[in-house]
Amino acid sequence: xxxxxxxxxxxxxxxxxxxxxxxxxxxxxxxxxxxxxxxxxxxxxxxxxxxxxxxxxxxxxxxxxxxxxxxxxxxxxxxxxxxxxxxxxxxxxxxxxxxxxxxxxxxxxxxxxxxxxxxxxxxxxxxxxxxxxxxxxxxxxxxxxxxxxxxxxxxxxxxxxxxxxxxxxxxxxxxxxxxxxxxxxxxxxxxxxxxxxxxxxxxxxxxxxxxxxxxxxxxxxxxxxxxxxxxxxxxxxx
Length: 238
Ligand code: ZN
Fold this sequence. Notes:
The protein is α/β, with parallel strands linked by helices. It folds into two domains: 2-25 and 74-115 and 162-234, TPP-binding domain (Rossmann fold, 3-Layer(aba) Sandwich); 35-71 and 123-155, SIR2/SIRT2 'Small Domain' (2-Layer Sandwich). The protein contains eleven helices and nine strands. The strands form two sheets. It has a six-stranded parallel sheet, with helices on both faces. A three-stranded antiparallel sheet has the order 5-4-6, with no helix packed on it. It starts with a helix and ends with a helix.
């Protein structure tokens, strides 16, 4: 059934969440609260907030380097399959909530990163931009620019608004898609639920190993696949 939908689609958009990256060994920090409590005085949602970053940059970067950055992670079967779909001219965009850059590492070009990327950072004082992880992976507890300002990653933290240009690009891609494939995310979480409403095509595929990811999303044309995302996508031939 999935193969047939992919065969007849010409403008697939993939919408992905944390579950896409867990198969590359990047844990979803939200599901590991207990583990963190032993090592950090605050829950992840607090540490990864804008006000915490500003008030406690040292603690922020301790958590960020230990738990958010995974420089060793490599693309998995899902990333590679989606890159192949793009090369075959079937997929117009990947919209992702992940910040790890693994889609680009797998060879995808049309990647819309709703929450930014760990692979770019900038100085909060002079605005200088830094590519790669070196700027934040150094010996000092808080990475600083030559001007003395704190260098922060270009990722959307709690309390930050989403970038309106990025949202606009995601809406445009989803609106013009003829097949929407959703994986590794729950549709009950913002912004997934809102963005999916812009889809005007006929078929939605939801791939989620952990059962009911649909939440209140009810359409009669949803194909729900209760499988791991990598194996599910790599069964498709383009
Ligand atoms: Zn600076």
